Amino acid sequence: MKVVSNTSPLIFLSNVGSLDLLLSCFDKIYIPNTVKQELGNIDLPKTIEVQSISEAGKASVAKQHGALHLGELEAIQLASEINADLVLLDDLLARKRATKLNIDVMGTLGLFILSARKKYISPKLAAEKIDTLVNEHDMFVATYLLQNIKQELQSLE
Predict the structure, then answer these.
(1) Which CATH number does the domain housing residue 36 bear?
(2) Dihedral through CA 86, CA 90, CA 96, CA 99, nearest 10?
(3) 116: how many CB neighbours lie within 10 A of its CB?
(4) Which residue(s) pair with 29 in the sheet?
(5) What angle do CA 8, 22, 103 make, to 5 degrees?
(6) Number of folded domains in the chain?
């Protein structure tokens, strides 16, 4: 399965010590150059590979910059170019853009649910990490969505 990630899922996972969930769920994750730059000094797992987008892709991203962040645009462009099965995005507008291009999308919260379903993490610990992201790391999640996610995690216990 080819997976591309934007910056925010990697930062959020790093903030709660859960980058290892990526290794459990996916064999390899690709990130564009801008995402690597945005990550700064975060120590990334070896399964994350930096890949450049094409020159035509760079031109396309430059035309769209402003509508979305550069990392989001490059992640979507890279996912399109390599025919990725999935792109990891948290921003709603970026998710809508990827969906319009027929690219499946998962966010940080979806990764916690997937990890709990596959028993890589307990549902209780997944809920605790989500609470930490929301309460301590400024992750915005609509109240109704947070309630739905917690109910789903409880159903997995």
Answers:
(1) 3.40.50.1010
(2) 10
(3) 22
(4) 3, 48
(5) 65
(6) 1
Instruction: Please provide residue 90's backbone torsions phi and psi, each rounded to the nearest 5 degrees.
Output: -105, -30
Can you read off the two tokens belonging to residue 80?
A: 């399109």
| CA-based radius of gyration for the chain | 15
Q: What is the mean pLDDT of residues 1-13?
A: 96
Which helix (H) or strand (E) segment holds residue 20: the answer is helix 20-25
Task: Give the structural domain span for 16.
Answer: 1-157
- Pairing type for strands 105-106 and 29-31 reads unpaired
Q: Residues for the chain: how many in total?
A: 157
Q: Which residues contact 157 (CB under 8 A, 6 or more apart)?
A: 122, 123, 124
Residue 53 per-residue DSSP state: P
Order of strands, edge to edge, in the sheet holding 29-31? 48-50, 29-31, 3-5, 86-88, 105-106
* pLDDT per residue as tens digits for the range 79-117: 999 999 999 999 999 999 999 999 999 999 999 999 999
State if pTM tops 0.85: yes
Does the structure show a pLDDT above 90 at 62?
A: no
Residue 99: phi and psi, rounded to 5, are -60, -40
Helix (H, G, I), strand (E, B) or coil at 94: helix
